[in-house]
Design brief:
The chain is an alpha/beta fold. The chain has helices at 30-46, 58-63, 79-84, 86-103, 114-126, 154-161, 172-175, 215-235, 248-258, 288-295, 308-317, 325-330, 345-357, 359-376, 384-392; strands at 23-27, 52-56, 66-70, 107-111, 138-142, 164-167, 182-185, 199-201, 207-210, 241-245, 268-272, 277-279, 281-284, 300-304, 337-339. It is globular.
């Protein structure tokens, strides 16, 4: 896809409806949109009169935010892919800055997506629009960039621009202890009271495929998953498979990939991520859905492929033993990881069979799932909704 083919937002972005804006939420990808939506629901439950505007996706709109920009077409992954679409991203960045300076929300809450969001924070600081630069706008950040993985020094830049940071993993608070940035663990959104895990363990359920929520990731990961499931189903003819999609455009992409697999399309059901799905095992990318499955106690493995340039760069700068968050939290291999060329059908088929038929593995996953829940439960002082309301300054 060329930069000109990217479905862009219409600029200038529309003005908010009548009245001042308490907070602008900026979420630049599907998982961020989902997690920001839960934050908005919790905040509105505590303070119903909040005026919340969003640049995100349908989940934020459904949660009660006024959507002024659909960010989901910009949800692509990897350095190489972002460079290909540089002009579109620059246009988006400039349009967001113009909107903020014109409509002056009391606060801006950035959600994840640090490549864009931290750049926006820096520009707002340079334009003297932020409280730390002498302006009126308070800057919040929810779901921290993974400074414990790479680019550790950017935590000091974050402290220059941001007023407060809400993190979803307890160990992240220590990552910012040597900065002036107020950092609070607000609990993980998957353990919030109003959240139902979209996956459940069922020993008689289908095999679940989770190739990701970005088109670039799906284009690379889905084919190896489909190759593997095709081989597995030829050996275990009574099994079925389901593949989750996050949007209609991603469903269309998955269907186009499946067209090359003959009658496999009849045995791989594409299902929306809005519905709970039962599964006996899972092949998952390293994104947030992998943690969902881990918390649900579903045995499985991580499959991950990116553009070779992105992978080469990542190998140089990332200094962590795992890419799966459950593995990092437990400091052991909850989900074995098969990255780039290591993800081969014959290997993944053996993994899936072991997940389904090995009772010791099934029991180990169940116990470790309980450990993860204990680690990620929200603090006694309140969750992310309380954090947002307390930091808007209304």
């Amino acid at each position: 896809m060329s930069s000109n083919e990217l479905v862009r937002a219409n600029f200038p972005l529309p003005a908010p409806s009548a009245g001042g804006v308490d907070v602008l939420i900026i979420a630049g990808e599907h998982s961020g949109d989902e997690q920001a939506a839960r934050m908005v629901k919790a905040a509105l439950a505590r303070k119903p009169g909040l005026k919340i505007v969003a640049m995100g996706g349908q989940n934020l709109q459904n949660a009660g935010a006024e959507l002024v920009c659909d960010m989901m077409p910009y949800a692509i992954v990897g350095i190489f892919e972002v460079l290909k679409h540089y002009s579109a991203f620059k246009e988006l960045r400039d349009g967001i800055i113009e909107w903020i300076l014109k409509h002056q929300p009391k606060a801006v809450c950035f959600v994840d997506y640090p490549g864009l969001n931290l750049r926006l924070a820096k520009i707002l600081d340079e334009r003297k629009a932020t409280q730390k630069s002498g302006g009126p706008i308070r800057l919040l950040f929810y779901i921290s960039p993974q400074v414990w993985v790479w680019k550790a020094k950017r935590r000091f830049k974050m402290a220059e621009y941001l007023d407060t940071l809400g993190v979803i993993f307890p160990f992240e608070v220590k990552s910012f202890e040597d900065t002036t940035l107020e950092t609070k663990f607000v609990g993980h959104p998957f353990l919030s009271e109003d959240y139902e895990l979209p996956t459940r363990y069922d020993p008689n359920g289908p095999v679940l495929l989770l190739p990701g929520s970005r088109s670039g990731a799906i284009s690379r990961i889905a084919p190896i998953m489909f190759d593997s499931i095709q081989e597995l189903l030829s050996e275990r003819k009574t099994l079925q498979a389901k593949c989750i999609f996050a949007s209609q455009s991603l469903k269309d992409l998955l269907e186009s990939i499946l067209e090359g697999y003959g009658d496999l399309r009849d045995r791989v059901e594409l299902v929306s991520n809005e519905l709970p799905v039962k599964a006996s095992c899972v092949l998952t990318s390293s994104g947030t859905m992998s943690l969902n499955c881990a918390l649900a106690g579903i045995p499985g493995a991580i499959v991950y492929r990116v553009h070779p340039v992105t992978y080469f760069y990542g190998r140089m700068v990332m200094k962590i033993p795992y890419i799966g968050i459950a593995n990092l939290l437990l400091d052991r291999s909850f989900y074995p990881e098969f990255i780039q060329g290591a993800a081969r059908p014959e290997v993944l088929v053996r993994e899936m069979i072991d997940c389904i038929e090995n009772p010791e593995r099934i029991e180990r996953v169940r116990k470790e799932s309980g450990e993860l829940r204990a680690i990620l439960d929200k603090p006694a002082g309140g969750g992310v909704g309380s954090w947002l309301v307390e930091n808007i300054g209304t």
